């Protein structure tokens, strides 16, 4: 009985510790502050294209616009900042967005934290990793599924939209999401000295 409760205590403390250590680091790190503002700029560029094309031509036109512009928008934001900026997911539409091992681990960590009740709005994760002889600062922030998103990422999409997506992305995996789900995440990295 005693060893049982000790075990529970240990497990719960251990699972909380990295979060505490990390949130401390995140609040004071200037790289994190930069990453946060880049996510805002990149996210609002994407949203702008999505919303204006949805308004002017509906989801079919928006699909074309996102297909054409999502890559260049990420590149533009990357080039002007010196960071590598993109989006990834456990279920990607564009295979160029597939996650590497670190990103996959972080996405799974986000799912766990969400299941434990943490708010997606404030969720983020940052870590400095070694790649060869370089140190790379990596940052991710989850992207929640909103009402607008299920038009093209949901479980019950119109036949027209489904067809259009299949023609642009034959290996699409990014459907079946519900409002509130983690659709994916912004992912940023920068080589540091
Ligand atoms: C008009 C259809 C449409 C809507 C609405 C839409 N998306 Fe997408 N989404 C796409 C397309 C097309 C891509 C692939 C873009 C590319 O080629 O890089 C994509 C890609 C993504 C990706 C990158 C990962 C991947 O799967 O390749 C994320 C993350 C994403 N969408 C999130 C969202 C969120 C969040 C919303 C709601 C705010 C949303 N999408 C609304 C069409 C849409």
Describe the structure.
This protein is α+β, with helices and mostly antiparallel strands. It has one domain. 55% of the residues lie in helices and 18% in strands. It contains five helices and four strands, in the order H-H-E-H-E-E-H-H-E. It has helices at 2-28, 30-79, 101-115, 150-153, 159-168; strands spanning 84-88, 125-131, 134-144, 182-192. It has a four-stranded antiparallel sheet. Strand 2 and strand 3 form a beta hairpin. The protein is globular and about 50 Å long. The protein starts with a helix and ends with a strand. It binds heme C (HEC). Residues 50, 59, 62-63, 66-67, 70-71, 87, 89, 92-94, 97, 143, 145-146, 148-149, 151-153, 174, 183-184 line the site of heme C.
Helices and strands in order:
Elements: H1 2-28, H2 30-79, E1 84-88, H3 101-115, E2 125-131, E3 134-144, H4 150-153, H5 159-168, E4 182-192
Antiparallel strand pairs: 1-4, 2-3, 3-4
Helix pairs in contact: 2-5
The structure holds heme C.
Low-confidence stretches: 1-25
Estimate what percentage of residues fall within beta strands.
Answer: 15-25%
> Strand tally, please?
4
- The level of helicity is 40-55%
Number of helical regions: 5
């Amino acid at each position: 009985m005693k060893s049982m409760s000790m075990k529970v205590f240990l497990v719960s403390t251990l699972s909380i510790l990295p979060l505490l250590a990390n949130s401390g680091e995140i609040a004071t790190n200037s790289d994190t502050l930069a990453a946060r503002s880049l996510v805002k700029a990149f996210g609002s560029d994407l949203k702008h294209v999505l919303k204006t094309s949805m308004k002017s031509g509906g989801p079919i036109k928006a699909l074309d616009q996102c297909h054409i512009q999502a890559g260049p928008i990420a590149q533009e934001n990357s080039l002007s900042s010196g960071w590598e900026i993109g989006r990834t997911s456990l279920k990607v539409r564009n295979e160029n967005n597939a996650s590497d091992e670190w990103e996959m681990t972080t996405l799974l960590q986000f799912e766990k934290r969400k299941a434990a009740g943490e708010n997606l709005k404030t969720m983020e994760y940052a870590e400095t990793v070694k790649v060869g002889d370089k140190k790379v600062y990596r940052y991710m922030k989850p992207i929640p599924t909103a009402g607008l998103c299920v038009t093209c990422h949901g479980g019950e999409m119109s036949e027209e939209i489904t067809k259009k997506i299949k023609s642009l992305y034959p290996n699409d995996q990014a459907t079946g999401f519900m409002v509130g789900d983690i659709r994916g995440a912004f992912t940023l990295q920068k080589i540091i000295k």
